[in-house]
């Protein structure tokens, strides 16, 4: 249910893909303008530099897409918790490497990465981190559906908890209006919309806790 909504929502994979596309277009405009003014070649005008940029960008996207495919853009069951603690594609080592990368390089690579991840999400295929977020969000939503009122967020933490994944799962439920949070951020509850969506998908969870 959460994955399906993510595919068609501007707050999910669709929005991520469009943001990545817009970022790449803006970067291409800027880079092409700088090269055109700096080189001043009559053979290659601004349009030529812009075309070269997109050819190179497509090549980068193909390489990134293949790398992500090799790392496993698959959909696994909720019960499979093997990647529950993976925060980034490729594991913790890949995450550490990304954090050590120069800030400028991270900025340049954000657009292509967003396009690849967003496009994968549109096709219903997600990376390790996204799968972990969806699984944790589904578990949290199932737990919230058992309560008739809000509960402390800390009561949902299950040690050893991957806090970044846990926080992202809460944000996902909040963003899509499946859950609401108190103004102090201490309590959370399932919304009317959340219960309605569960009912529409024939997911019935008995309220047994007040």
Features:
mainly alpha, 210 residues, three-stranded antiparallel β-sheet
What do you see in this structure?
The structure is a single chain. The chain has 210 residues and is mainly alpha-helical. 60% of the residues lie in helices and 4% in strands. It has a 3-stranded antiparallel beta sheet with strand order 1-3-2. Helix 2 runs antiparallel to helix 3 (46-70), helix 2 crosses helix 5 and helix 6 crosses helix 7. The longest helix is centred in the first third of the chain and has 27 residues, at 13-39. The radius of gyration is 21 Å and the shape is elongated. Mean pLDDT is 77; it is low at 72-101.
Task: Provide the fold topology.
Blueprint: H1 2-8, H2 13-39, H3 46-70, H4 92-100, H5 103-122, H6 128-144, E1 151-152, H7 163-175, E2 179-181, E3 187-190, H8 192-200
Antiparallel strand pairs: 1-3, 2-3
Helix pairs in contact: 2-3, 2-5, 3-5, 6-7
Q: Determine the fraction of residues in helical runs and give it as a percent range.
A: 55-70%
- Annotation field: number of helices: 8
**Largest sheet, order of strands side by side?**
1-3-2
Termini gap: 26 Å
State the secondary-structure class: mainly alpha
> Rough shape?
elongated
Average pLDDT confidence is: 77
Count of strand segments: 3
Report Rg: 21 Å
Q: Which series of helices and strands comes N to C? A: HHHHHHEHEEH
Which residues form runs of ≥5 with pLDDT under 50? 72-101
Largest β-sheet summary: 3 strands, antiparallel
Strand content: under 5%
